[in-house]
Amino acid sequence: MSDADLEEIRKGRLAQLQQQQHNQAGGATTAGGQDEQQKQQEAEARASILSQILQPEAADRLGRIRLVKGSRAADVENRLIMLARSGQLRAKVTEDQLKELLGAVAENSERDGTTGGKIVVSRRKGGWDDDDDLLDL
Q1: Euclidean distance between CA atoms 56 and 97, whole angstroms
Q2: Least enclosed by CB within 10 Å: which of 47, 64, 134, 137?
Q3: Which pLDDT tens digits describe the chain residue by residue (137 residues)?
């Protein structure tokens, strides 16, 4: 590293320490604020990892899934991050690979009985049909 790089790092660290001192002195950072800040940092780290391991098409699909079913998207994200950290991903994940992973997650959730997506509609049978009145005309 050159002296200019080291000086830049020192300036950045000094600014960070001054910001922390200012926050502590002003009481701006409460326990709730720290939790929120930590969650935000974790979300940024997850987004960074996912952007590195997903192709753009796969990232778009995962985003659409997150809109419809957030829990399923979170399960897939956790599995992808786990695979990336363990070194099992050799290249970026394609959309087809993401589809396969989604199928595996869906099978696991069905096997575990954690799916809440089944809706059963039972309709009344009998004399509640208003269309019969039109036949009398």
Answers
A1: 13
A2: 137
A3: 677 777 778 788 888 888 888 777 665 445 667 888 999 998 898 889 899 999 999 999 999 999 999 889 999 999 999 998 898 988 999 999 999 999 988 888 777 765 555 667 777 776 555 555 566 55
List the structure tokens of 98: 């993401």
Q: Which amino acid is at 95?
A: E
The rounded distance, in Å, linking the Cα atoms of 70 and 63 is 9
pTM flag (> 0.90): no
- Cross-strand pairs, 93: 54
Tokens linked to 17: 């320490």
Query: Which amino acid would we find at residue 134?
Result: L
